[in-house]
Amino acid sequence: MCLCLIHASLQVLAVEMNWLEDFLTLAVTRNFSRAATLRNVTQPAFSRRIRNLEYWVGATLIDRSLFPVGLTPAGESFQRTAQDALSVLRVGRDEALGFVPKIEEVVSISASHTLAVSFFVDWHEQLQNRLGNLKARIVPDHVAGCVDALISGNCDLMLAYNSPLLPTLTDIVRYPSIVLGSERLVPVSAVDDAGQALYSLDSDTPQPYLCYSSDSYLGRLTALIIGRQNLAARLNFRYECSMSDVLKRGALAGSGIAWVPERAVRDELAAGRLVIISDDSHTAPLDICLFRHAEHDQRVAERIWQACLTAEDETLEPDQSPAGGVPRQG
Questions:
Q1: Pair (15, 81) in one structural domain
Q2: What's residue 282's pLDDT?
Q3: pTM of the predicted protein model
Q4: Which of 140, 205, 269, 297 is the most exposed place for a label (fewest CB within 10 A)?
């Protein structure tokens, strides 16, 4: 192990390791608010931690005159140092853990709540058939938490939605991804006794609306749709939640319109309990993506990654048409 890297990693003990992870998260997102959300701290606290790191380094690392913010030359240099230092510490931790007997190797997969419920089980079964016995630990979380786990090295792989309208991670070199399947974010409504939608986006009367929290990934994506189609005046806020399953249940109860991933409501659409109330203009494309940290190496994760890479013609996606071709109402 390189002595300079050991020295750098030991110096981490003189600062908060969280500061380094904060800095690396900001280097990826280039946005203080977004990075603070990912790190699960308030923006003022996050900004103070970045300032404290700059004081410790003795140089300005972030160019705050840019929008989005960028790294100064010192920041670009220190980014590599921070990555190396944390990497060495993680390797040391793994080497230490190697002295503890392990019965089985388990891959840790962080996944958005929706994909953990609607995608993971079938996908894991497909992988089992291809790779044999596969031990996995699925950790459901909101997308920001999943991204934080990936960046900080607390998971081996990440299952998350990614839309061309709103990239989940922009550093595709450091955090490469594989598209496992595709679907859409669609507006749905419950139906009346005649099977017609209770609510419409074309109504002159504001319609009840069940929305995601504004800082969630699907919340920001839905906001893009609403803004693009000038729908805000037609929607009357009822309640918000970051979980698609809660909004789906609200829509089923007739509480209002909800935008949900089509896969998450495929059974309800097929049964006619929910209907899509728009054409494609009020939807957004969603890719189901598997992400990894390019510099982290875990044996089982590598097997999964290679299996997905070689499945270009023989998809590992459990179902190519999540809604089963259910007619749309709009």
A1: yes
A2: 93
A3: 0.67
A4: 205
